Amino acid sequence: MPLNAKTRRKRGKRLVVTLLSGLLPVLLGGVILYMQAERTLQQSTELTAEEAVRQFELILDNTAQAARELLPLAGQPCNDVKLALREQVTRRPFVRSTNLVWDNNIYCSSLFGDYQEKISAGDYSKGQLLLMKGNPVTPDTALLVYRLSEGKQGAMSTLDGYHLSNVLRMIGRKTVLLLQVGPNWLSADGAFHEGVLMASPVAPIELTSSRYAFEVAAGFPKGETWRYMSSEYPPLFSLLIFFGMVSGAIGHVLQKRSSSPSHEMQRALESAEFVPYFQPVVHGDTKTWSGAEVLMRWNHPKEGLVRPDLFIPFAEHSGLIVPMTRSLMRQTAALLAPAASSFDGPFHIGINITASHCKDLDLVEDCREFLSAFAPGAINLVLELTERELIEPTAITHQLFEQLHALGVMIAIDDFGTGHSSLGYLRQFNVDFLKIDQSFVAMIGVDALSRHILDSIIELSAKLDLGIVAEGVETEAQSDYLAAHGVNFLQGYLFGRPMPGAEFINALRHH
């Protein structure tokens, strides 16, 4: 049950990561598109407001020209100048009416002729413009009044609100566009409003004219950003969904393939993918099987059998080699212990160890557990020191080897003659075997110098009373030469390749 629960947790975690991998580009892309839409709408309101100001200024230029031409007539009798007032109305587009003012009193109008109405300069924005709801002729139609004064003289020209609202509609087709003059403002439907200007919720902007006393406000209604995205970005949304699916698939695949070799090996260790293979070791004189070297293989579920030189260095570097070796020893004991009754004499079992195993005394307990699976005297456990990492001769190391020897465990130096510390190991540690590297064995009958080195190693082992194992024996000539020189044990393809446990036990019964 714990393993099943752990698997479910891992699957749940993988599912969450896959979903996040798929949603992340969609969410990020959506945020980017939303920001881009907001930027586009903001630029649109800016351009719309600028165009509206420009159009209103052109209209007011025409209106102001009418007032400038009438200003010199202010103070003259109305009957003498009313035709001039009406002429400006007919000549000037957008101008609805004109008026003359004397001492802040309207006394002559193009609509009514003689007319009396008191005006206050303070009602006009900067003394220039006034937005009105209407006049007695058209009480429900907004008006924009332009006022020009010089001393007691004054002239006024009036714009029909229809022209103003028409500009708002034409320019701001998709935009909420408003014209504000002083405290009053006009919307695109021609309605007159008083009080605080209504601010647009999306991309708002207010732009003031540099020439006349008015300002334009532009923006979009609520939800316009999403409406814009839905109408303008459907292909991009489809692309985002596609990228999300691809990203989710990549995230799912990458979770199955670990981000580093050590993580992948940790997964493999938990899945029991590291399995023992056994290569026979034979007596040098009789060629009968005397034992086997236990070799680690990675039975990857997708890649198949992985070569040890591709993963052992990573295992040593990451520190996983210790639990991997412990698992290997337990699997070996489970495979060989039932067949131990058929062993002819003590059966030699060689297992590789590295410097990582020599940093504490845990290896002693691992060996004690391994030996306890067999009857006393049924096996000889040989730990083979590899030299990929230097084993330091510390107090812990010496104590470790002493306790191992006390258990009856023997020590061998693997690939003797090729490492930089082989002779140092002989001097510092109490070893029992030397293993001759296959590179020397391969030179038998080929290279005289290598043969002399090989003979020196054999002679050295005899003088030190050490057992000797030759690796990489592939020909009868090599086998005969080594046997003739008193090599105790032989190992190589001539006698058997590394094989799985079941195959090895079956072969062992026939030897």
Summarize the structure.
The protein is an alpha+beta fold and 511 residues long. It has 15 helices and 21 strands.
CATH superfamily of the largest domain: EAL domain
Mean pLDDT, rounded to whole units? Answer: 87
Q: End-to-end span in angstroms?
A: 42 Å
Q: How would you sum up the major sheet? A: 8 strands, mixed, barrel
Your description of this structure?
With about 500 residues, the chain is α+β, with helices and mostly antiparallel strands. The chain has two domains: about 15-225, Beta-Lactamase (2-Layer Sandwich), CATH 3.30.450; about 260-510, TIM Barrel (Alpha-Beta Barrel), CATH 3.20.20. The chain has 15 helices and 21 strands. The strands form three sheets. An eight-stranded mixed barrel has the order 12-13-15-16-17-18-19-20, surrounded by five helices. The protein has a six-stranded antiparallel sheet with strand order 3-2-1-6-5-4. Helix 1 (about 1-70) runs antiparallel to helix 3 (about 160-170), helix 1 crosses helix 4 (about 225-230) and helix 8 runs parallel beside helix 9 (about 360-370).
